[in-house]
């Protein structure tokens, strides 16, 4: 599964879809999902939370490890994907689709990697 | 560069994710570790365990040498049988937990964890000084394939043509698989009925392929180290480096039964262990369960009713079979009774847990 070209990425292996004017949809990349293994628990920020890019805003657990989720952009959380909370395995099966995690009403500028930069980053790892 | 298993090419062809384990590149998972875990509980899983250490002792005093070197009473083990035992240092600390097969009157095979294989081989050599015994570390040329799960007996019966009704738990027998000599043992580390096949490394691929072919009608899937860890945790089995290490004696780990003081003569650690056996004043290994989905994990603090740290989690996961978090931990003896309410600090959140009997999971009789 390759990384979609229309998305932005972070060094923490999150993807950000800025396609919906002013609202960013956030998930983790297939690279992250494969590295984690089967995801068994996600803790997401709550609707109304104010996020600061780079700060932790949740957790994602696989059978073996726990990882922080980082806010990729500044803004207010406007939606969270409850289906993923109920069935975290969707993060593995459809990381760029049904496995999205939360949506943010973006404030200010964003600082994201393009797909080429992200692909280069994950090749180095 | 990690040492590749003799089955490395097979794992690559199967699309495995690899992990470095004690200097070996071993398959972590082939696809979903939860699916592999489930397959072992409901059908069978095929494991490559070639990273484990195999050390043979041969000679007229092999039994006496092992009685001295290990905490178990190995001269009491009948040929064809195996024992779970430990090798301790002079202070009683656990250097490794072992499965020892007695293959013949004067022939034993000691199976050590990969991370300790060299240490165990060296200790056995040193401790054999003065005994008429030869110690051979065969780890580098010995492959180990395990078939674990409720359909494993049927698969192994077809692969080896052996009558498994005569092969009881913790027994071994010479057999053949894919035309090659193997040592076939009914042992395992998953809580299921299961078999382990020891062979020369150069034959491992043939044997793996033969088992895979026959296993496909019995729900067999290749299974990696990730699911092996959740399986052994559900079965309440200790893992060296988590529940076992030189800082613990077998008594601390709740496994004092492996220490056989009744055997004649001295053994390494006897004096320290004699002192320790009736004097467990520190912490002991317990099982913990909780509700919810967030698991206590290795290194998380265990808290008493007042929120004071009293112990440490050694292993933990959301149990794939049971659907709730399970963990093992060391806690003070006074707080180790099943039913005791404790808590675990899960990344800053105090989460209630209850002390429970081990194992968490037992296969249906």
TrEMBL record, chain A:
Cofactor(s) the protein requires to work: (R)-lipoate
Cofactor, free-text remark: Binds 1 lipoyl cofactor covalently.
Gene Ontology cellular-component annotations: cytosol; glycine cleavage complex
UniProt keyword annotations, A-Z: Lipoyl
Keyword Isomerase listed: no
Entry-linked InterPro entries: 2-oxoA_DH_lipoyl-BS (IPR003016), Biotin_lipoyl (IPR000089), GCV_H (IPR002930), GCV_H/Fam206 (IPR033753), GCV_H_sub (IPR017453), Single_hybrid_motif (IPR011053)
Pfam families hit by this protein: GCV_H (PF01597)
Location of the Lipoyl-binding domain: 23-105
Modified positions (N6-lipoyllysine) in chain numbering: 64
GO biological processes: glycine decarboxylation via glycine cleavage system; protein lipoylation
Gene3D superfamilies recorded: 2.40.50.100
Keyword DNA-binding: no
Family membership: Belongs to the GcvH family.
Assembly, per entry: The glycine cleavage system is composed of four proteins: P, T, L and H.
Family annotation (NCBIfam families): gcvH, PRK01202.1
Role of this protein: The glycine cleavage system catalyzes the degradation of glycine. The H protein shuttles the methylamine group of glycine from the P protein to the T protein.
Name of the protein described by the UniProt record: Glycine cleavage system H protein
Species name: Actinokineospora alba
TrEMBL record, chain B:
Assembly, per entry: The glycine cleavage system is composed of four proteins: P, T, L and H.
Native organism: Actinokineospora alba
Function of the protein: The glycine cleavage system catalyzes the degradation of glycine.
Residue ranges occupied by any Aminomethyltransferase C-terminal domain in the UniProt entry: 285-361
Gene name per UniProt: gcvT
Transmembrane segments: none
Catalytic function, reaction form: N(6)-[(R)-S(8)-aminomethyldihydrolipoyl]-L-lysyl-[protein] + (6S)-5,6,7,8-tetrahydrofolate = N(6)-[(R)-dihydrolipoyl]-L-lysyl-[protein] + (6R)-5,10-methylene-5,6,7,8-tetrahydrofolate + NH4(+)
Keyword Protein transport: no
GO BP terms in the entry: glycine decarboxylation via glycine cleavage system; methylation
Entry protein name: Aminomethyltransferase
Keywords: Aminotransferase, Methyltransferase, Transferase
């Amino acid at each position: 599964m390759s990384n979609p070209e229309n998305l932005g990425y972070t060094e923490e292996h999150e993807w950000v879809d800025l396609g919906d004017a002013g609202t960013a949809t956030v998930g983790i990349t297939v690279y992250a999902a494969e590295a984690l293994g089967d995801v068994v628990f996600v803790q997401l920020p709550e609707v109304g939370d104010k996020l600061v890019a780079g700060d932790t805003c949740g957790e994602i657990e696989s059978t073996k490890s726990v990882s922080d989720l980082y806010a990729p952009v500044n803004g207010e959380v406007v939606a969270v994907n409850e289906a993923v909370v109920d069935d975290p395995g969707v993060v593995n099966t459809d990381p760029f689709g049904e496995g999205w995690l939360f949506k943010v009403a973006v404030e200010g500028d964003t600082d994201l990697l393009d797909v080429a930069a992200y692909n280069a980053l994950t090749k180095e790892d | 560069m990690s040492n590749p298993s003799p089955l490395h090419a097979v794992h690559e062809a199967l699309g495995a994710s690899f992990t470095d384990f004690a200097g070996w590149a071993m398959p972590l998972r082939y696809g979903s570790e939860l699916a592999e875990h489930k397959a072992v509980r409901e059908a069978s899983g095929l494991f490559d365990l070639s990273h484990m250490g195999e050390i043979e002792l041969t000679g007229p005093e092999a039994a006496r040498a092992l009685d001295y070197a290990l905490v178990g009473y190995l001269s009491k083990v009948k040929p064809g049988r195996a024992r779970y035992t430990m090798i301790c240092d002079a202070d009683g600390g656990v250097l490794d937990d072992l499965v020892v097969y007695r293959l013949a009157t004067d022939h034993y095979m000691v199976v050590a964890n990969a991370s300790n294989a060299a240490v165990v081989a060296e200790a056995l050599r040193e401790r054999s000084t003065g005994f008429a015994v030869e110690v051979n570390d065969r780890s580098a040329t010995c492959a180990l394939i395990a078939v674990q799960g409720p359909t494993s007996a049927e698969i192994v019966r077809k692969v080896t043509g052996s009558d498994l009704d005569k092969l009881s738990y913790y027994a071994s027998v010479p057999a053949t698989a894919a035309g090659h000599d193997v040592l076939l043992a009914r042992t395992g580390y998953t809580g299921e009925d299961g078999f382990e096949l020891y062979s020369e490394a150069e034959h491992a691929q043939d044997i793996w392929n033969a088992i895979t072919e026959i296993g496909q009608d019995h729900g067999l899937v290749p299974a990696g180290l990730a699911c092996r860890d959740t399986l052994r945790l559900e079965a309440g089995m200790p893992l060296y480096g988590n529940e076992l290490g030189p800082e613990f004696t077998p008594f601390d780990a709740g496994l004092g039964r492996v220490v056989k003081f009744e055997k004649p003569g001295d053994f390494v650690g006897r004096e320290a262990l004699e002192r320790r056996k009736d004097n467990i004043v520190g912490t002991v290994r317990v099982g913990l369960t909780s509700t919810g989905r967030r698991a206590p994990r290795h290194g998380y603090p265990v808290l008493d009713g007042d929120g004071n740290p009293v112990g440490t989690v050694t292993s933990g996961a959301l149990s794939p079979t049971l659907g709730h978090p399970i963990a093992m931990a060391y806690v003070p003896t006074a707080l180790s009774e099943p039913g005791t309410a404790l808590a675990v600090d899960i990344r800053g959140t105090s989460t209630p847990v209850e002390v429970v009997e081990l194992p968490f999971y037992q296969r249906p009789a």
